[in-house]
Amino acid sequence: MGVQFFRLAVAAWIPSLRRLKRQLKEALYGRYVQLLFWLFSSTVWLLVAVTPGVDRRWTIMGSLSRLFLKLAGYPLQLKGKEYLPSEGRAVLVANHASYMDGIVLTAVLPKPVTFVAKAELSRQWIAGRFLRRIGAAFVDRFDRHQGRLDAEHTAKRLVAGDAVLFFPEGTLTRTPGLMPFRMGAFVAAAEAGVAVVPVVSREPARFFAQAPGFLIAVPSRST
User: By the 8 A CB rule, do 78 and 46 touch?
Assistant: First the structure.
């Protein structure tokens, strides 16, 4: 009787122990990736701050972004690389899936692009300094007149030969799916007479959890 009771107790505890093991593994992995992320972000920020030349800064960002994703155990797939513009003068529009977007796109894009960021970030000391060092363009989302001037400035950069990347949703949200697009990317492309190249990012739902990885897809047709 005692042996049977012991066996039943062990059998009842096995699922709980397995669940506890899985939770502990996920927690340790999350802490590891958090530590890795802060080490990566601080290193990149410092190197970008002291390195001359946007091209050199972009090379550093790309190399360290790929290293971070590898060490974090996030496989990275890029489909349609051949459809990315080999030279400048293109507007890339990407969905805003997570705070990892900048890291993932920097890891896969073959050459420097001008990231378009909301103007509020320019007033933040850490983010603003970093974005200015990588040549980002800032766009006001709330002042329509200033937003129009920002779009014209971005169009001039396109005419000068830059490739410019927009997140047309404008912000992040926990709501699944795409948010309505703002028109800045398309206005800039029309004024500069360049193609709009869509970039689709599929990323893990939770940043610090073990996940199947990232998929970046560039459709074969641009508009």
Answer: no
pLDDT > 70: what percent of the chain?
71
* pTM of the complete model beyond 0.70: yes
Domains and CATH numbers, the chain: 2-217 (3.40.1130)
pLDDT in the model for residue 79: 77
Amino acid at 121: L
Question: What is the distance between the alpha carbons of residues 188 and 37, in angstroms, rounded to a whole number?
Answer: 34
The single residue listed with the structure tokens 């190197």 is: 47
Scan for tokens 């896969």, then name that residue. 108
Helices (H) then strands (E): counts for the chain: 6, 7
Q: 3-state DSSP call for residue 131?
A: helix
The per-residue pLDDT for range 108-144, each reduced to its tens digit, is 887 788 888 887 888 888 888 999 999 888 887 776 7
Q: How far apart are CA 80 and CA 201, in angstroms?
A: 12
Q: Which amino acid is at 145?
A: H
* Angle of the 144-159 helix axis to the 184-192 helix axis, nearest 10: 40
Q: CA 185 to CA 217: how far, in whole Å?
A: 19
Could you tell me whether strands 214-217 and 195-202 are parallel, antiparallel, or unpaired per DSSP bridges?
Answer: antiparallel
